[in-house]
Amino acid sequence: MQLIEIGIQNITESDWNPNQMDELTLARLRASIEMFGIVQPLVVRMISSGKYETVGGAQRLSVTKELGF
User: Fold this and answer.
1) Are 26 and 33 in contact (CB under 8 A)?
2) What's this model's pTM, rounded to 2 decimal places?
3) What CA–CA distance (Å, rounded) separates 19 from 47?
4) What tens digit of pLDDT does each residue of 14-48 get?
C-alpha cells in the first residue's frame, strides 16, 4: 500500500459500491468532514493514467466533492 495525494478531480466513485447511507448518517458524515476534514484516507485503485476509482470511501468522496474541497 502506498500513501499519495491525488487531486479530487482525478477520483471517481466506483459503480459497483454496495454500501449506502441513510440521510441521518450522511448528515453526520458531512458534519464530521466539515469539522475535521478527511480523517481516514480514501482507498483507490488506478484505472488509467492519472485516473482513480474508489475501493473504500465512496461516501467520503461524494461529501468532499459536495463541500467543494
Assistant:
1) no
2) 0.84
3) 21
4) 888 778 889 999 999 999 999 999 999 999 999 99
Residue 58: CB atoms within 10 Å: 21
d(CA 21, CA 54): 16
State the amino acid at position 20 in one-letter form.
Q
- Max Cα separation, the chain? 36
pLDDT at position 23, please?
Answer: 94
Residue count of the chain: 69
Residue found by looking up cell 466506483 in the block? 14
Grid cell digits, residue 40: 481516514
Alpha-helix residue ranges (DSSP H) falling in 1-69: 23-36, 58-66
